[in-house]
Design goal:
This protein is α/β, with parallel strands linked by helices. An eight-stranded parallel β-barrel has the order 1-2-3-4-5-6-7-8, surrounded by six helices. The chain has helices at about 1-10, 25-30, 45, 60-70, 90-105, 115-125, 155-170, 180-190, 210-215, 230-245, and strands spanning about 15-20, 35-40, 75-80, 105-110, 130-135, 175, 195-200, 205-210. It binds 3-methyl-2-oxobutanoic acid. 3-methyl-2-oxobutanoic acid binds near residues 20, 38, 40 and 42.
């Protein structure tokens, strides 16, 4: 797949820019500036106010992905497989095929690096489904407070090993979420596929953020989120102006009438 090859050759040459999108309009605006657009299951908390991404369904992911597809002309489109849709090889293959067919995405992303998930990913890749991995903090599996990963040497060894196993399995990239700085460098240096960090240091081959956080729509308090814009203010200002013009009969003026 050409788009994936083009991404892989960027390793050690230039940083890879990734963002999430849940709709056509956002995808269209970011497409020219990024390499990868992820339809993340973070849409569960960002759009639907769910406490956990576990509530996100396959149908929700497909519907949002269909919208996002319409806004992309150049970026690689990856779709998150939601919780409980890849519990065994046959379930994973059936659901990934459905997502790929209906959304026309380029790849899917699955969380985890244990033996069971590796076997499932192997089966998907054997069946021509391109897979992006996800290690470190795994929102679909996290119980309690979200904390960064790679504190103990046992955890470091496990994560480094999982990254190497995922590479051998054939994934083309791995998201490293909330992974300790030195460990994210070690993983990035020791594998040939690309690492995409979120709260995992500048040493990763690329970075990803939730677009709604980056544009200041969510007012996120998460440590790794940087707001690069303030869309909330832009919305409020526009709506205030609209309200004033409606009340004062200034809108709709002659220009907007048939
Ligand atoms: O669901 C999501 O948006 C993600 C990114 C934060 C990596 O998995």
């Amino acid at each position: 797949m050409k788009k994936i090859k083009n991404l892989l050759i960027k390793k050690n040459k230039t940083k890879i820019v990734c963002l999430t999108a849940y709709s056509k309009n956002i995808a269209k605006e970011i497409d020219n500036f990024v390499d990868v657009i992820l339809v993340g299951d973070s849409l569960g908390s960002v759009l639907y106010d769910f406490d956990t991404t576990r509530t996100v369904t396959l149908e929700m992911m497909i519907n949002h992905s269909k919208s996002v597809r319409k806004g992309i002309t150049k970026s690689l489109m990856v779709v998150d497989m939601p919780y409980n849709t890849y519990r065994n090889k046959s379930e994973a293959l059936k659901n990934c095929k459905k997502v790929m067919k209906e959304s026309k995405c380029d790849a899917v992303k699955l969380e985890g690096g244990n033996k069971k998930i590796v076997e499932i990913i192997k089966h998907l890749i054997k069946n021509n489904i391109p897979v992006m991995g996800h290690l470190g903090l795994l929102p679909q599996n996290e119980k309690g407070k979200f904390t960064f990963k790679g504190k103990s040497s046992k955890e470091k060894i496990r994560l480094l090993n999982e990254a190497k196993v995922l590479e051998r399995t054939g994934v083309f990239a791995i998201v490293l979420e909330c992974v300790e700085k030195k460990l994210s460098k070690e993983i990035t240096d020791q594998i040939k596929i690309i690492t995409i960090g979120i709260g995992a240091s500048q040493h990763c081959d690329g970075q990803i953020l939730v677009t709604d956080d980056l544009i200041g729509l969510t007012n996120s308090k998460i440590k790794f989120v940087k707001e690069f814009g303030n869309v909330r203010k832009t919305i409020r200002d526009a709506v205030k102006k609209y309200k004033i013009e409606v009340k004062s009969l200034k809108f709709p003026s002659k220009k907007y009438l048939y």
